[in-house]
Amino acid sequence: MLTVRNSEQDKVTALDAGADDYITKPFGIPELLARIRAALRRLPASQGSDDTVIRLDGVEIDMQMRRVRKADKEIRLTPKEFDLLHFLVANPHVAIPHAKLLQAVWGPDYGDQVEYLRVFVNQLRKKIEPDPSRPLYLLTEPWVGYRFEPPAQGLLEP
Asked: Which of 33, 48, 125, 140 is the S-S candidate for 132 at Cβ 3.0 to 4.6 Å?
């Protein structure tokens, strides 16, 4: 948010309403650019191209279209669920720590809310795993975080 209103209450209200940042006029261009760079760092990172389609036992994940299909039926993922899935898929075979996942998907203020992550991973497992109680793709790394394990055949298609 860019505004002339600079009281603490205005800032709290705006941030609580969903603003990612708050900067007041007058401002310096270097500060504005630094805040933009910080916001861009909080976006989910991806390795490679987003025009990948991933197939996992009847589940098709289209990264560019942000769509998931299972048995030819569209599966609805929330934006955060898709961002989490995207981050995990973009880093296959890598155990990603809880704090890194939280900060990559929810932002820098969420490094300690591991319960958020558990809830979202469980929801994703219900939507894409053949047997959510025995996951094949979204694996828990005890005391570390989570890991995406693609099928052995490497069913990634550009």
From this structure: 125
